[in-house]
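Lab notebook: predicted structure, single chain.

Context: the supervisor wants predicted structures on file for every construct in the current expression panel, including those that have not yet been purified. This is the next one on the list. No modifications to the sequence; it matches the entry in the shared construct table.
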Amino acid sequence: MNSADRSLALVLVSHGGMARVRLADGTAVLARATGRELQFACGDQVHCNYDARHDQWQLDAIAPRRSALYRTNARGRPELVAANLDCLAVVLAPLPEPDLFVVDRYLAAAHSAGLTALLLANKADLEFSPGVRAELAAYTAAGCELLSCCAQSGAGLTALKARLQNQRSMLVGQSGVGKSSLLRALVPGADAAVGELLKGDEGRHTTSVSCLHDLPGGGALIDSPGVRDFAPALEYLDARTLGFAEVALLAPRCRFADCAHLQEPDCAVRAAVDEGSMSARRYESYRRLYRLHQQLRARAPRGRRKS
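Prediction complete. Output recorded below exactly as produced.
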């Protein structure tokens, strides 16, 4: 191999300026980014060069993406989570008690990124509380797809495998909802595969990074660490709807084109909440995200502000 060798590779794991990538011949190698400005994540297609002098692969460019999922990091800046996704599967379960405001933010991020969103109710052998069941019904009424399954018993897994086949999906959700169990059920040998991908990266726990796995029969699945909270990258959200599907449907009926759906007269969104056709909790979730949107915009450097 010589320094002129170049390959288009798939990012399987990324951490810092390093990535485990799969070359065109199927070989997985470790590659180092050549510049700090390169922001890449699981699912990216990247251009790599083999540097014979230093006996290492170098990641020097990122191919155009068909989609990108971002979150807001602790400094209020957008951070790439995954690339070239088709579906975001938001996992929730009766235990731990679902934080539906986190679910809403994942759905908003998916909607804004042009991804199909899937609510995945795991631990089907347990019962959701009546309040959560009512909210799940509100999600489906708003057009969100909901599947029920149980990683432990296998219930619903056949339908889930068929739903995820031949596309690239990502499992996200709170800690403890069973994402790791679902991954093992959907991708036999996933634990061993993660260990192999992370070899040489001492001290890193497998639950602290996202990894891309091939699905048997076609497609790919990206797992992700559990979270306590999640905020979509607000500068990528539509300022009028913030990624809420119900708001997107109702907003054209508002009296004012720039209606924020808070105090404005003749607001179709608030009218829907008052009459019960939109979930009051979902509306409160929208209000919370709107306030966060305004706070982060106020703190952002002038050159980075976006409407």
